[in-house]
Amino acid sequence: FHKMPLCHKILRDHHANSRNDRVKDKYILIFSDVKGCCAYILKKLVCVIVYLVSLGFFMRSCDHHDGLCNTIGQGNWRFCTSQDWVCCRIVSMLSWIEQPEDFPSPDQALRDPDGLLAVGGQLDVPWLLAAYRQGIFPWYSEGQPVLWWSPDPRMVLLPDELHVPHSLARVMRKQPFELRADSAFEQVMQACAAPRPGQSGTWIDPQMVAAYGALHAAGYAHSMEAWRDGQLVGGLYGVVLGRVFFGESMFARCADASKVAFVHLVRALADKGCELIDCQMYTDHLARFGARQIARSEFLRRLAHGLVVHDDCWPRDLVLQDGNT
């Protein structure tokens, strides 16, 4: 309220006027100054409201779950202010895409957070196929625009490098599960979407379930399931193009269920000529099975080679009962 001291000064300077004039001038000046102050206050209140609304919007937009929220918490997502406006630094650096052919080269992906490439577009069969063929995959949270990723390095498993831990091999010899392929794809996705310990949300939202359900109906997305006593107890799903399997998510409701399903799937894919299993990002869990990180350039080279073949490597004749093919 920098005008208030000025108002007092002006009022004191009117001492030469008559008492009535002084009173009249006083109220005129006070009214004029209060009016100006109110306008100033109103302007600032509007600015504050715009700031808070914008901040809330971008905080919701940049709020990720299932591990990505940890990335944000480490400062990889930042907010900047310019006068009374708020912008999200990372989002402003991304390519906003409107058509599947608009995907930028994976080489343009950000380093921090690693692999974030573009924002926008849709989740449907044409978009997903275009993305996977370029080594790009969607990862976002409910209520956000679709975010597209291509990290460097890339976590992969070469089928002939599969390592089965001794403890798991002993479990598999007991044949504890009935294994099925593509018998409950949506159930597997819903199970993968369920919140996990230490997580407040999931990146597999209803839009994601619907999109991959359509991809499954089109013959590109598949599931491997572990059953016990007629109950789905573990499994995984992913996308198959050519000689490449793109793993998306897995779940387990009892010990070793998803691990057994994973090992059998890798072996079945290998028998069908699979050259590459995309694990996307590093996890200790997959590293124990022989998965390793390779440079994105190497991944894209292997991907291009695996996509040359038109027939995919999904084992459609796969029938597993109690672990037996």
Characterise this structure.
This protein is α+β, with helices and mostly antiparallel strands and 325 residues long. The chain is 41% helix and 20% strand. It has helices at residues 3-12, 19-61, 68-76, 89-92, 125-132, 166-173, 185-193, 206-217, 257-271, 284-287, 296-306; strands at residues 79-82, 85-88, 95-97, 116-120, 137-138, 147-149, 154-157, 178-181, 221-228, 231-241, 244-252, 276-280, 292-294. Strands 8-9-10-11-12-7-13 form a 7-stranded mixed beta sheet, sandwiched between helices. Strand 10 and strand 11 form a beta hairpin.
Instruction: Give the uncertain stretches in residue-range form.
Output: 1-32, 53-87
Output the radius of gyration: 30 Å
Q: Globular, elongated, flat, extended or rod-shaped: what is the shape?
A: globular
Share of helical residues: 40-55%
**Number of helical segments with 4 or more residues:** 11
Instruction: State the strand order across the main sheet.
Output: 8-9-10-11-12-7-13
The biggest beta sheet is recorded as: 7 strands, mixed
Question: What is the number of E strands?
Answer: 13
Mean pLDDT over the full residue set: 78
Q: What order do the helices and strands follow?
A: HHHEEHEEHEEEHEHHEEEHEHEH
- Distance from first to last alpha carbon: 81 Å
| Strand-pairing-aware structural class | alpha+beta
Q: What fraction strand?
A: 15-25%
